[in-house]
Every structure is written in C-alpha cells, then in structure tokens.
Amino acid sequence: MAKRLTHAERVRRKLKAAQAEKGITQSDIGTVFGVPQQSVSKMYKNLDAVPLGKVRRLLRILGLTLADIEAIE
Questions:
Q1: Which of 13, 33, 68, 70 could form an S-S bond across to 64 if both were Cys, CB 3.0 to 4.6 Å?
Q2: Under 8 Å between Cβ of 15 and 58
C-alpha cells in the first residue's frame, strides 16, 4: 500500500515544483533572503515555523500565492 502524503509534504512538493519550473535553486532563494542554502532547506522542512512574511516572500519568488497553497488538499 502506498504511503499517504501529509499536507506539509504536498506543500513542499508544490514549492519544489514551482522552484524547478522557474529554474531557481535554494541557493538563489538564500541570496534573496540573505541566508545560506542550508537555511532555505530547513525552511522547506519546517514551513509551519516560518513567519508568514517570509512565506509570502518565498511564494512571490516562486510565482505562487497563499491561495495556491490553501488549495492543496
């Protein structure tokens, strides 16, 4: 039986897909945020702990909106 993905995993996949589609690396995102790539990786792994302002900024970089994320079931 296939493992059911959590909502957080589905959100991460959406973010990574948008990132790949735009040809943006985590290092590129880190440059915009002024943090190393490892910090971006940690942010992806623990989105619930990321301040909303940073999430909105990340979504803008990736061409997504909060509505796109809210629509993920």
A1: 68
A2: yes
pTM of the model: 0.84
Helices in the chain by DSSP H: which ranges? 7-22, 26-33, 37-45, 52-62, 66-70
Which tens digits make up the pLDDT trace of 19-42?
999 999 999 999 999 999 999 999
- Angstrom CA distances, 40 to 25, 29, 73, stand at 10, 7, 24
